[in-house]
Design goal:
By secondary structure, the chain is α/β, with parallel strands linked by helices. It has helices spanning 2-13, 94-102, 117-126, 166-178, 206-217, 230-239, 252-261, 269-275, 285-308, 328-337, 342-347, 351-356, and strands at residues 28-35, 44-52, 55-60, 71-74, 79-82, 84-89, 105-110, 134-136, 184-187, 223-227, 243-246, 264-266, 374-377, 391-396, 399-403. Helix 4 runs parallel beside helix 5 and helix 5 packs parallel to helix 6 (230-239). The structure holds zinc ion. Zinc ion (ZN) is lined by residues 88, 90, 111, 317.
Length: 407
């Protein structure tokens, strides 16, 4: 049922996409907006937000007069929020990037694709050739068997027998860094969503992961690590990765270590939930049983991590393909159900995720001087997080990508 409702929302959203021109001076003034800025619980009521040159120029409470030559958008008392950040997605096509943006995501951390496509998508967005979210690319996985990813660079042929030794690991990191990625993605365990794999089986040791972290650090690049088992999470945290992706079976001791070292956790709960569904991305009875086993564990560990002060951020772990349903709104709705305050949940996809991605001076909040990454929803998400599933307007870097506000 949940999935059905979600698809209806997507259908409602697509046909109405409009791109608006800016005013003569390039300024846009949002008026009569209830602003949730990402920092405070209470909205700034009946506010005006002026955007100029892609940046937030002015925020004023009360019905202020918009600059004369601006394009005025009357938000009619709806809620203006920071654009959402998805810290774990797999964008591999032009359509996926557009769909992510249209669902309210203005920044994405790519958690690997099978090629270097995400670096090209990132450049297309930067050059204005594609309406998509800002992308932090990680491209191909550091993993023992490159699989199809070997086709993405002829230099990878030398690694066709596998990536295990220190020299092989270093070489793979160097080739990936050559493509100008923002993050390196590796794994400690096999995957949950593949029938033949066992998410508890270790694929790299702490020493191997440490080599990856050290090689990436030479260029100042952080490492994100897919890990499910306690042993895998522990190895990755001790190796010095910046984020744990999933963390399904992590122990309290290792969560305490994450808290101490500042390692953050991207649990991707909604994708794990998708495993249990008879439709969606994973449609197999064995994977459904696996999901039923994993979901309560990841839920418990999100609660523990939150209680212990580990920084938990939202990642949908989706490719934003038309058949995929996991979304950030769902992740935040679950975070609230698991004990986060609504503001904490929203921050897991705005201010906190910006901090974790090193973007806090660029995006993630409604603040003068930040990029104009904004969305409008019909209800206050701090009262009803589900409102995030029906995004009425999306602006990224000052450009309006979607506007379904009725005049
Ligand atoms: Zn993933």
């Amino acid at each position: 049922m949940k999935l059905f409702i979600f698809r209806v929302f997507l259908l409602l959203l697509w046909p109405c996409t409009i791109v608006l021109a800016q005013g003569p001076s390039g300024k846009i003034a949002f008026v009569h907006a209830n602003v949730i800025d990402g920092h405070q619980e209470d909205p700034i009521e009946d506010a005006m937000v002026v955007v100029s040159g892609g940046m937030i120029e002015r925020i004023e409470a009360g019905s202020a007069n918009p600059p004369e030559d601006s394009l005025v958008i009357d938000v009619q008392g709806r809620y203006l929020l920071p654009g959402l950040i998805d810290s774990h997605a797999h964008l591999g096509s032009l359509a996926d990037a557009r769909r992510a943006l249209e669902s309210g995501i203005t920044t994405v951390r790519s958690a690997s694709v099978n090629s270097f496509k995400d670096t090209v998508l990132r450049e297309m967005v930067r050059q204005g050739a594609l309406a998509g979210p800002d992308i932090l690319a990680s491209s191909i996985f550091i993993q023992p068997d490159l699989g199809e990813a070997i086709l993405s660079d002829t230099r990878l042929i030398e690694l066709h027998e596998g990536v295990h030794s220190p020299a092989e690991l270093r070489r793979l990191v160097q080739i990936i860094l050559d493509h100008g990625v923002d993050w390196i993605k590796t794994r400690a365990n096999e995957r949950a969503g593949i029938l033949e794999q066992n998410p508890r089986r270790l694929v790299y040791t702490r020493e191997q992961l440490k080599i990856v972290v050290e090689e990436a650090a030479k260029k100042g690049i952080p490492v994100m690590c897919h890990a499910h088992s306690e042993e895998g999470v522990r190895a990755a945290v001790e190796a010095g990765v910046r984020s744990i992706e999933h963390g399904t079976f992590v122990s309290e001791q290792t969560l305490a270590l994450m808290k101490k070292k500042g390692t953050f956790m991207v649990p991707t709960y909604s994708e794990m939930f998708d495993l249990t569904q008879p439709s969606g991305e994973y449609n197999h009875p064995v994977l459904q049983i696996r999901g039923l086993h994993m979901v309560p564990r990841v839920a418990r560990n999100i609660q523990r991590a939150h209680r212990m002060g580990v920084r938990v951020v939202a990642g949908g772990d989706t490719g934003y393909e038309s058949s995929e349903v996991a979304r950030i709104g769902m992740e935040l709705t679950e975070f609230v159900r698991l004990g986060f305050s609504p503001l904490e949940a929203l921050q897991a996809a705005t201010t906190l995720s910006a901090e974790v991605l090193g973007l806090e001076n660029k995006t993630g909040a409604i603040r003068v001087g930040l990029e104009a990454d904004l969305i409008v929803v019909g209800e206050n998400p701090l009262e009803n997080m589900w409102a995030l599933h029906d995004v009425l307007l999306v602006m990224s870097n000052g450009q309006i990508a979607v506007n379904n506000l009725r005049p």
